[in-house]
Amino acid sequence: MGTYNPLIEPAEVKLEEETIMQWLNNGAQPSDTVRNILSKAGVMKKFHDEKLAKK
Fold first, then answer.
1. 0.85 cut: is pTM over it?
2. Cα(8)–Cα(36) distance, rounded to whole angstroms?
3. So what's the pLDDT on residue 16?
4. Is the alpha carbon torsion for 47, 45, 51, 31 positive or negative?
5. How many CB atoms lie within 10 A of CB 30?
6. For residue 54, what pLDDT is reported?
7. Where is coiled-coil annotated (predicted)?
8. What distance, in Å, lies between the first and last C-alpha atoms of the chain?
9. SS3 assignment, position 7
10. Which of 7, 33, 38, 50 could form a cystine bridge with 43, CB 3.0-4.6 A?
11. Domain spans of the chain?
12. Per-residue pLDDT tens for 1-55?
């Protein structure tokens, strides 16, 4: 669902947001580390905003 390249400065993280959002919408529970990465990328905020908009 993404890649991490620590060999460049700064380290590069690429995330496939669509795939991640599908997994989260289907009930996936990210670990604390993954949740932190997703939060820094803004994915968790987007997920929560979409979740609240559905209600």
1. no
2. 21
3. 96
4. positive
5. 17
6. 81
7. none
8. 27
9. coil
10. 38
11. 2-54
12. 999 999 999 989 999 999 999 999 999 999 999 999 999 999 999 999 998 998 7
Q: Quick check: helix, strand or coil at residue 24?
A: helix
**What three-state secondary structure class fits 8?**
coil
Look-up of token digits 């604390």: 32
Chain position carrying tokens 């993404």:
2
Distance CA 55, CA 10 (A): 39
CB 3 within 8 A of CB 14: yes
Q: Residue 8 contacts by C-beta under 8 Å, 6 or more apart in sequence?
A: none
Structure tokens at 46: 């987007």
